[in-house]
Structures are given as C-alpha cells and as structure tokens.
Amino acid sequence: MLKKEMIAMLLAGGQGSRLGVLTEKVAKPAVAFGGKYRIIDFPLSNCINSGIDTVGVLTQYQPLRLNTHIGIGIPWDLDRNEGGVTVLPPYENSSNSEWYTGTANAIYQNMDYMEQYHPDYVLILSGDHIYKMDYEVMLDFHKANKADVTIACMPVPMEEASRFGIMVTDETGRIQEFEEKPEHPSSNLASMGIYIFSWKAMKEALYDLRDQQSCDFGKHILPYCKNKGERLFAYEYNGYWKDVGTLGSYWQANMELIDIIPEFNLYEEFWRIYTKGDIIPPQYLSSDAVVSRCLIGEGAEIYGEVYNSVIGPNVIIEKGSIVRDSIIMRNSTVGRNVTMDKAIVAEDVTIGNDVVIGCGEEVPNVWKPAIYAFGLATIGEHSVIPDHVKIGKNTAISGVTTPADYPDGQLPSGHVIGAEKDGDAV
After folding, report:
1. Helical (H) or strand (E) element with 253
2. CA atoms within 13 A on the CB side of 128
C-alpha cells in the first residue's frame, strides 16, 4: 500500500484578473517572473526543497502553458513512479461534470487522488505567491501542537490588516477567532493561504460541506473546523512573501530582484528555485550596448541601453532604444529608437521603431482604474505596436494594432486598445 506522510495540493486554477491583459491568455501561476521563471516555480521548488515529493497541481483557467511548463516534473525532481507531480484539471465523472467552484471544492473533487496516498497530512498551497518556505518546519510545528489545522500567517502593518484574513491567537498560537478583512482588526497576523490539515479533519470538513456553493477554505472550511472545537494554530512566518496579484505588486517584486542587496535572493545554493530550462544560446551585448542593474535572460540580444529592468529569454532590444524600469518577457522584440519607461511587456510582443512607451501625465484609466494603475503601461502577449506611436501611462494594449488605432499617433494616458472591458473587447 502506497503511503505518504504529507502530500501537497497546489491551487493553480486562478485567472488573476487583477493582472489585466497579462492573464488574458494564460493562468496567473504561469505568468513569467524574474526574467527566467514562472510564478508557479516558487511553490513547486519549496515543495521539493522541503522534502515533499507528491504534489497535485489543480488547474482550470487557461491551463495549456501551465501543463506544458510542468510536464512530468523533471526540473523539480518530481518525475517519480510513486508520487511526483500530477496535473489535476476538472473532469467529468458518471454523476456530474462541473468546474471547480472554490478552493475547497477543487480539493474535494480530487479526493480519490489524495486517498491513494493515505496521507497523514495535506498541505494546501496557492500557485501565485513569491516566497521561500520550509514546509517541513511548519509540519513540525503542527505535530508539536497536536493541531488539526495549521495556518501560515505573517505580521502585516496594522493599517494594511483590513485587506487580509486576520487570525486572533492566544499566547500558545492557538487561533481564538478569524476576522475576514475586518474594518477594525484586532490583530495584524494575516493568513498567507497556506494550510496544513490533518487528513481526518480535512476529510470530514470537505464531506460535510460538499453541498456548499463555492466552497472556500477561508470562508467555510476553517470556520467549520473552529466551530467543531478542533485545534487550529497560527504558524508565524517572517521571511519574504509577496502576493503578485496586481500589476503594481508584480512590477515591484520584479524590481526588488535587481536591488544591490535583494531582499529576495535567487542565488542561494541551499534553497534553489528550479524551472523548466530551454536549450538556448547565451545572451549577447553588442559593443554599443549599455546595461545597468538588470536581469538579462539567456538568448537575449541587447544593442541599445537598458537600465533597472528585467529582460526575459530571447528578447531583442535594437540599436538606439532606451529601456528603463521595465519588464520585458520572453521572445519579445523592441525595434530601433524606442523609449520605454515603466512598462510591462508580455511574451511574444513586437514593438516597432521610433515608439515611445510610458510618456505623458499619470491619469486614472478610464475602463479599469483599479487594474491599470501604478503609472505602468501594460502590453499583452502576441501584441504588435506599429512604428511612430506614443503610449501614455496607466494604459493597456492587447492584440495586433495598426496606426489607425492611435488617433494623432498616440494612445493617451488612461486609455486601452483591444483590452477586455467587462468581457467585451474595446
């Protein structure tokens, strides 16, 4: 009989709608990060570094690139006959066929997958956070407290606490009450969406709440366990952790990688971040190129100037172009004499010659001011930008555009071309 002490279930089905055009065609965990990685590489690497060799990855929205990236798990040493990594999309069975309708519902639908390993503990993870954590230390804490559920938490500034699920604990760390995004929080200990469940406690909760619409861990499972009198503990984490759920936090987390002493270090020998490596040539910097404080991916060709930016693999930046404070993802091309300031350019984008990106005043976006903000110009994948146009701040572009899309040769700050507006193209 196959037996695993702890298995991980990694929730990677989210659309990440707050990332706007970056997630129009790809699930948020598959979005590129740090010039080389994808966001899901971080929790997967944490698993193998923590000694967890059985991981179920639950996919739903736009899963193709995620499936291709994970493959059979070779980069993370998760290609195993017993356990390893398994991609778990929603599937049809004899009694029903339904999408995952919440984080807990997704786990419930994969009960058969978990049952085959007879686990003592199940680790629930999100596929869209940037951090390093030894889950084995968290499991030791769980065992030491004879906990039914352990929730990873981190202290946040009190003024930001109302944005999170807040845990109120006693002096032993046992959770006394939850506050879901409270207006006046009683504590600053915020849930990170990382849970260890003892198998019996999770199984009971999932079965008892199986008819709950849109069943979620934070809203339904944890309160259920608490009300039953089960032992819930908060495991306090004080390392680097970033939810890259907005364009602003995504841009900032990338920029933090190129600090002189980065808060989040990608170069530690003892806690490596693994990813699918393509066989591509080294980067090339021409004799005229100027590069300062950047991450430059393999296969990139730089003929212009790049400052304080994260450049992905196989990106080409032509002569006369100046790129500052920007993220350019793999296989994109920047033409000649382009000026780019504070932009996020997705994969496989072609930018013409004599283009200016990130210019003008910073005004709110007319369609989605909460998403297209932070002074960024965001260009979705496979987009084409014609020659001689100017693109303002808090803008979004998606798709192949022509000069006719730019009245007077420009996209003013706060406007969009081809991006989704409440489900309709604009």
Report:
1. helix 247-256
2. 25
| Contact in structure between 313 and 329 (CB atoms under 8 Å) | no
d(CA 332, CA 347): 6
Q: Which residues does the chain have with pLDDT short of 50?
A: 92-95, 97, 422-426
Asked if residue 395 lies in contact with residue 415, where contact means CB atoms within 8 angstroms, the answer is yes
Up-side HSE of residue 125: CA atoms within 13 Å toward CB?
Answer: 34
Q: Nearest CA to 195 among 142, 130, 144, 125?
A: 125
For the chain, the farthest-separated pair of C-alpha atoms sits apart, in whole angstroms, at: 70
Tell me how far apart the alpha carbons of residues 129 and 194 are, in angstroms, rounded to a whole number. 10
Q: Answer whether 336's CB lies under 8 Å from 320's CB.
A: yes
Q: Taking the chain, what is the end-to-end CA distance rounded to the nearest angstrom?
A: 56
Taking the mean position of all CA atoms in its chain, how far away is CA 2? Answer: 32
Q: pLDDT of 188-227, one tens digit each?
A: 999 999 999 999 999 999 999 988 878 888 888 998 999 9
Distance CA 70, CA 258 (A): 27
Residue 141 CB partners (closer than 8 Å, separation 6+): 147, 150, 233, 235
Segments of 6-66 assigned E as strands: 6-11, 32-33, 37-38, 54-58
Dist. CA 351–CA 345, nearest whole Å:
10
The CA dihedral of 213, 214, 218, 221, to the nearest 10 degrees, is 40
Q: How many CB atoms neighbour CB 414 within 10 A?
A: 21
Name the burial class of residue 250, with classes exposed (0-12), middle (13-18) and buried (19+) by CB atoms within 10 angstroms of its CB: buried
3-state secondary structure 64-102: HHHHHHHCCCHHHCCCCCCCEEEEECCCECCCCECCCCC
Q: Which residues contact 44 (CB under 8 A, 6 or more apart)?
A: 10, 55, 70, 76, 78, 85, 274
From CA 110, how far away is CA 18, in angstroms rounded? 27
The pLDDT tens digits for 233-249 are 999 999 999 889 899 99
